[in-house]
Amino acid sequence: MLLHQSTWQEVEAYLERSKGIIIPIGSTEQHGPNGLLGTDALCPEIIAHEASKASGLLVAPTFNVGIAQHHMAFAGTITLRPSTMLAAMQDWIDSLVRHGFERLYFLNGHGGNVATIQAAFAESYSDWSLSGESCPHRLKGRNWWELPGIMQICRDTFPVGDGSHATASEVAVTYYGYPDSIKDVKMTPKIAPDGDFADAADYRATFPDGRIGSDPSQATPEKGEAITLAARDALIAEATAFFNSDD
Amino acid sequence: MLLHQSTWQEVEAYLERSKGIIIPIGSTEQHGPNGLLGTDALCPEIIAHEASKASGLLVAPTFNVGIAQHHMAFAGTITLRPSTMLAAMQDWIDSLVRHGFERLYFLNGHGGNVATIQAAFAESYSDWSLSGESCPHRLKGRNWWELPGIMQICRDTFPVGDGSHATASEVAVTYYGYPDSIKDVKMTPKIAPDGDFADAADYRATFPDGRIGSDPSQATPEKGEAITLAARDALIAEATAFFNSDD
Amino acid sequence: MLLHQSTWQEVEAYLERSKGIIIPIGSTEQHGPNGLLGTDALCPEIIAHEASKASGLLVAPTFNVGIAQHHMAFAGTITLRPSTMLAAMQDWIDSLVRHGFERLYFLNGHGGNVATIQAAFAESYSDWSLSGESCPHRLKGRNWWELPGIMQICRDTFPVGDGSHATASEVAVTYYGYPDSIKDVKMTPKIAPDGDFADAADYRATFPDGRIGSDPSQATPEKGEAITLAARDALIAEATAFFNSDD
Amino acid sequence: MLLHQSTWQEVEAYLERSKGIIIPIGSTEQHGPNGLLGTDALCPEIIAHEASKASGLLVAPTFNVGIAQHHMAFAGTITLRPSTMLAAMQDWIDSLVRHGFERLYFLNGHGGNVATIQAAFAESYSDWSLSGESCPHRLKGRNWWELPGIMQICRDTFPVGDGSHATASEVAVTYYGYPDSIKDVKMTPKIAPDGDFADAADYRATFPDGRIGSDPSQATPEKGEAITLAARDALIAEATAFFNSDD
Amino acid sequence: MLLHQSTWQEVEAYLERSKGIIIPIGSTEQHGPNGLLGTDALCPEIIAHEASKASGLLVAPTFNVGIAQHHMAFAGTITLRPSTMLAAMQDWIDSLVRHGFERLYFLNGHGGNVATIQAAFAESYSDWSLSGESCPHRLKGRNWWELPGIMQICRDTFPVGDGSHATASEVAVTYYGYPDSIKDVKMTPKIAPDGDFADAADYRATFPDGRIGSDPSQATPEKGEAITLAARDALIAEATAFFNSDD
Amino acid sequence: MLLHQSTWQEVEAYLERSKGIIIPIGSTEQHGPNGLLGTDALCPEIIAHEASKASGLLVAPTFNVGIAQHHMAFAGTITLRPSTMLAAMQDWIDSLVRHGFERLYFLNGHGGNVATIQAAFAESYSDWSLSGESCPHRLKGRNWWELPGIMQICRDTFPVGDGSHATASEVAVTYYGYPDSIKDVKMTPKIAPDGDFADAADYRATFPDGRIGSDPSQATPEKGEAITLAARDALIAEATAFFNSDD
Q1: Domains in chain A with CATH codes
Q2: Chain C residues contacting B via beta carbons under 8 Å
């Protein structure tokens, strides 16, 4: 059940049986020569939509632009400043909580979002913690590749060159979701360098084609399907447990 | 050409031939008994994607949550505060301008966004106007139903009960785009009341099922297709003229 | 009854009989060769003060600087950033609501303010809409030239060259209010060009002396008086209805 | 020369001969049983306008709402939060500096504004101090009653009961400026209590009719005129020296 | 009793007997050739810690960076923008008030902080004043050199060249607190110039070695001890009275 | 070399030989029955000061209040909202960068700060990444217990009950630094429970005395000294390498 493809009455009925919702959250940023700019938003969206189809869990629209300042030297990247993302997430959270949602599960597709997502959770809780009242809602963030069992599947699928940005795994998931957008590009070098980065200029100087440690030319829709379906099942299990928890 | 389904190199190549981009911008808010919560984001997205397919114009990801405070008494609605939307639009604009885009065309799907979009444009221009330097980019907002010729088509298609919120036209466009999400709901009353509103409680008291002046049970995918394709053509014409203009 | 020329006890007594207040809101920005920089603040102020004198309606001090970024290339213009104006209007609204005012009528003198005023209203309502409580106050914005019947009078008075910035009408109203500030300037060209604008540099390049589509040398205090008095009556009628409404 | 009653060309010409401008800044807040809510904005405005008439110095529109949180328990008071006032003053300063003004003299009418005005100056200078470049403009704040010689005149005019809020002096200045707004009210007690305050509830509890230490029933337009004209002369001298200074 | 060297149970027990807390607040900024960059934070901290030791009054951690924009042309200075300091002080105040503290005494070590501290107090009170409820807490700021009797001691100790920045007195207090950090530097000129300043470049141009009006080479730990102990006693008296007051 | 105990000339001289600075950053929050409220600020401060003494590396004042919303149900805790901390860190960073520092090493003492520190780094880099220019400075955050080799020492020292909040290790470090503040408290239960938390009420309900998974009654100054000195050496090595790096 996708929130944006439902009516308000359908959501109202859903709230009778569950207080939980999944929010895919990602980024719009370069993903190397054969990865889509939307990869980090599309992956959690694809997985969450599959989970919704299989389980009936409610999925919100995708928060599709995140913290991508370090990719700004590559055309097409869009970033929020962290202070903006704090404010925007606050409004999404406040809105959903207003309707009675008490378990908000952010399925994240971008490592660079993690810090700001956690800061946004603390910002939301702060209102309650400073007031002295008890906060009724719980916020959870999860990177899709860290769902139970998934990292192992990725490593098994791509024993060499899965990498850490523009990974073979994430490109594969998007190829499964968007087979019409498969790009046939030769990687040079085959496996991209590893390393750290600071701002956009530094990133581009260190990683000229945008990849970090990966050879995403290994990605295929079939491999993406396997990863996606495994992640789907892990998500259903984890989100369901979270929605049902009293903590 | 969709930005999030393209690589950065493809966007870089696009920038060689055009400085223009279309950004669908909408809202996630109740649309009555048979309208989707995502209607206002889906309509400009559907139209823009059709336009992109037909013309090659570049389309950004959809800015999918807007100003919907007045719909907050209906489950599933998500709103930004206007101050948050100003900040978020600023970051999107700054990011695209950084890459060399000079013509940003926001195709809007929600009347409630218009004021804040215009305020965001003024906020962006203010940086330049206060600095004394000349601003290289131009920002344009257009409600899809006000594209040349479209309002007439909507009125011809739905001479009675097109309405002003949860309109038959917009529901039809989403039914064209998402035929699996068609809802078969009887409207009571057949045509919803008209009127003004302030906050969410006021809105709900005046418009109990969310519609304003409309009978969206008239919507069909076929009617939606006709509107969408007309809007597509009007969008291509207007955006192309804007992208090529020197003003 | 002018708030700033009343005592607090007088305002307290007023609140016993009415919950409504008129707030003139304008801008400080160039108005061409013979228009005053204060035109857009002075017009709603003049009209509102006349209305107050004739009816006893309470009028607040004038919010005298607004969104004028596009006029910054002309000396003397002062602008707020839209985000600042949102915050300032919020504080004015919160203050008046604190005292028990429930109908706040902003009489606006500047087209460039409209979007931000509407965004500020949404910002104010958002607090209530997100809380789930019902908002006790109502906010209304009205451009003085769009008061019932006024645009027709302006067009009748100046059939040619009323224009859209530094209009003959608004200059006439200020000449009625400030006859000592009448400027005798020859317009070249007689009627200014029409068109669109973006930032300040763009505006100045397109409209070299600041006017848009107008020949304000037609303005006289007598014509201004006629417009002012008609607007006064229309304002009294509309504000009174608003103050008495239950919606 | 009043900015809002001048054209942009007149301001442009003024800038050829002076880089200085006076900005009256005040508050809209209760001033006891016979003082106007606008007193703190009207006093610096009256004095500055007199100075302008006598000297040709340029005067900006009045910044008419300030920090009045402590008066919020009295009807009609309007306050800005200090953070809002910082932002609004920043925009006024940035706008004037953009046109080439280099000496901004804020003539203040409200003790409660002093801290925030000084903080706003520091905020403006911070941009330059953090950049490492030299700031071309200078900001000066002055309470009108602290202009050289004025406090002595006030004390001589009202040896008993001038007080510190709703002072006899300030009420007299407004009575000179607005003789039609003179209020004939008996004070009980004749001289109001002295003391400190925190928030609005505390203020009201301590100072039931709003006055602090004053008997403003002594105010007359004649006494107000004497104070005003002396302040006018002191302002002309001080502002001229500031405008001409190289520091 | 120092808050940061206590357990939460100890603070909880303290709150049974007192609702008051002292917060040292200062700045990190140049203090001339022999003054420590931390002088303005260290002085109130040294005095408050002595007072705590002698009386058991609770002292919070030191707010150690303040408004120092004007010192930014000297290496090592760290400044907050006033708007940032407003926000940070708000969070400190909200936190302490949450625990039941009702009397917050800020012992300040930096003249440049005074305006922003007062603005922060007004920001805190504004929440209550705009809500219409009575604020339970009271905020007090005091510059340590203005504690009763202290200025006289400073002037008696340094009849010539105490000055107004990098004063002999404050350097002496830090030499008493940090005898290992005494710097033996010859002053040229012996007494620094007096005057005003605006931004950092202006300050450096006017006061080349950072001092204003002072000869801090007179500072000794012994003189610092005398000042510190006197300030300690004055602080205990004033804070105790404030903590016990009902106003 | 401590910045706040140095003169500006000493810092200027330091900048001739190094562009690096260490900033201890922590929190003021409950640390269970025998841990100091300042633990998380004191630990990095103690270690950094030891490192400075041993190596001459420059250490800034301690950023002593951080993200502690979840501890607000325990008296004495002080928190910043994440949005405030972003702004404050920005000002510290901007100030240090202004003087020519290019390597800012934040030695962190509080797990709850990590997300916001990383978000603050992204906020700082964003200015550069969006401008298109290359950022000259590098920002690094390190939790002191994750310095190379330290976690192992902590686990060896406290094989059972080191825990994850109010750890035996961190309490030991503060006991080494502040032997006069050692608290003799019996823990009940001996080892605190483990688990997750959200807001302050949730935290307190789950962890009644504030500890998570720890038995800090094992802490002694001797054990603290061993940990501190090992951390000191690891810090000197890592910070020196960072200061000298070209990346």
Answers
A1: 3-243 (3.40.50.10310)
A2: 67, 69-70, 72-73, 79, 81-83, 86-87, 112, 114-120, 122-123, 125-126, 128-130, 132-135, 138-139, 195-196, 198-202, 206, 247
